[in-house]
Amino acid sequence: MCTRCLWLDESKPDYVAYHDEEWGVPIWDDNKLFEFITLESAQAGLSWYTILKKRAHYRSAFKCFNVEQVATMTDEDVTQLMDNKGIVRNKAKILATINNAQRFIEVQKEFGSFARYQWEYVNFKPIVNDIRSKEDYPATSEISERFAKDLKKRGFKFLGPTTVYAHMQACGMVNDHDNACFRKQPLIESTKDLDLRSLLC
C-alpha cells in the first residue's frame, strides 16, 4: 500500500489521481501553466477539491485553456459564463481569467514563454522542502511573495502569495510531498539531471 501526503483525502479517487499523477510534477508547457493559473485563481477562497471537481467544465468554458482564445473573450462570453453552472459563477473571477490571459500573453512576448519567466524564480530547479508533518507545509514563501508581487505589478488578478505558492506546488516549482510519500523521491530523481535552463532559454 502506497504512503501518500498527509493532506490527501484518500476516500476521493479523483483527488488521489491528481496527487499521484499531477501534483508536484514540473510543468514547462505554457498551455498547461495557463490552465493551472486559471484554476488556482478560481480557487481563491475555496477548496482546491471544489475546483478540481469542476475542472472539465472549466476546460470546456475556457476554450481548453487556449490563452489566445480566452484573451479575446467578449462581454457576451462573460454573460454566458455567468449562466454556466459548471464553473464558479463569480463575475470578478471570470473577468480576471480573461484579464490574466491578456497579461499572460504579454509575459510570453517579453520572456519568450511564460515558463521561462516563472521558472526563473527558482533558478530553473525545483525546490525540495523537508515535510515531516502537516505543520511543515508552507502556505507561502519569500519566493511566492516576490512572484505574486510581480504578477500584481503586471496586472494579474486573484493571484496573491498564498495562491501563487499553491500554483508553485502544483506545477512542480516546489516539491512539497511528504518525505514519506511514495511520490517524493521519484520526482526528485526525475529532475536531478534535467537542464531546464537550457530547455527554456
From TrEMBL:
User: Per its record, what are the GO molecular function terms?
Assistant: DNA-3-methyladenine glycosylase activity; metal ion binding
Q: Does the keyword Zinc apply?
A: yes
The record's annotation in InterPro entries points to: Adenine_glyco (IPR005019), DNA-3mA_glycosylase (IPR052891), DNA_glycosylase (IPR011257)
**Top-level taxon of origin:** Bacteria
Alphabetical keyword list: Metal-binding, Zinc
Instruction: Check the record and name the SUPFAM superfamilies matching this protein.
Output: DNA-glycosylase
Protein residues bound to Zn(2+):
5, 19, 177, 181
Gene Ontology biological process terms in this record: base-excision repair
Question: Zinc among the record's keywords?
Answer: yes
Instruction: Give the signal peptide, or none.
Output: none
This protein is called DNA-3-methyladenine glycosylase
